[in-house]
Amino acid sequence: MKKIAIQGVKGCFHHAAVSKYFKGCSYTLMECSSFRELAFSVFRSNVDIGVMAIENTIAGTILTNYSLLYEYNLRIVGEVYMPIKHHLMAYPGQTIEDIKKIYSHPMALLQCELFIEEHPDIQISKYSDTASAAKYISNFKKKGLAAIASEDAAIEYGLEIISSNIQTINKNFTRFFIIKNFLKKQNEEDNFNKASLIFKILHTTGSLAKILSLISNLGINMTKIQSIPIIQRPWEYSFYVDIIFNNIKDYKLMKNKIKKVPCIHQFYIMGEYKQGIIRL
Which of 122, 139, 153, 182 could form a disulfide with 131 if both were Cys (CB 3.0 to 4.6 A apart)? Predict the structure, then answer.
């Protein structure tokens, strides 16, 4: 039975991502109060696997999570895309007019900005994660309090949904990484078509363009490029790139060529894995 670390508690979107990716498998959850605790647990091998949110179609990229992956030398071994539907929930028997304060995770609040703006008299309070907010409301059993969380959280903690699908954009997805300790034995089979890379380049004219052109000229599709600030080195950045390829030989050729480019200061493969499927 796998032990899997998530950020949050039962009923959160990380839990839903685990249920989707590991459907049919037996597992136990380690509930972490922060992304750093999650990353550290995987690093120390307190768990077999971690599931970590990395970006959302409304709120954008969680840059600090890239830094955690690099800091703790963690490997990406998979990804899963989850449709995110947010609901306002409270102790049963209330309406939106009764609500004085809403609790939720900062990312969830960003994803529901329009709904929040439509109710300016309601106070907003950040919480460690969506399901923990729902759990708190359930335990408190006090009227006037509500949480923004998933339908699963409402069921898990006996709350009543008083406003459904309050996310600003209906097609709202979060991408989650499946992560492992880098030092653990890895599957060496070439059964992947996606990779996540990170590299640092010298501050010379055209350095970034040279790398991107090299990748493109081999017919490899770049699905994302993200600059990440280098801590304690102001205005210097690492670049994170996601690529998808049809031919593993093209990918291996790209790796060899990148290593020989003079402007590359550091080249690091964060993970090689199968592309996740997005179902609208």
Answer: 153
